[in-house]
Amino acid sequence: MPVNMQIAIDGPAGAGKSTVAQAVANRLAVPYIDTGAMYRSVTLSALQQGVSFHDEAALAAIASSLSLRFIPLDDGQRVFLDDRDATHDIRSAEVGALVSVVAAHPQVRERLVERQRLIVMENRGLVMDGRDIGTHVLPNADVKIYLTASLHMRASRRFDELAQRGYTGTLAEVAKVLRERDEADGGRKASPMRPADDAVIMDSTTLSIAEVVEMIIALCRYRSAQKGAE
Ligand code: DC
Question: Measuring from atom 1 of ligand 1, which residue has the nearest CA?
Answer without folding.
Answer: 36
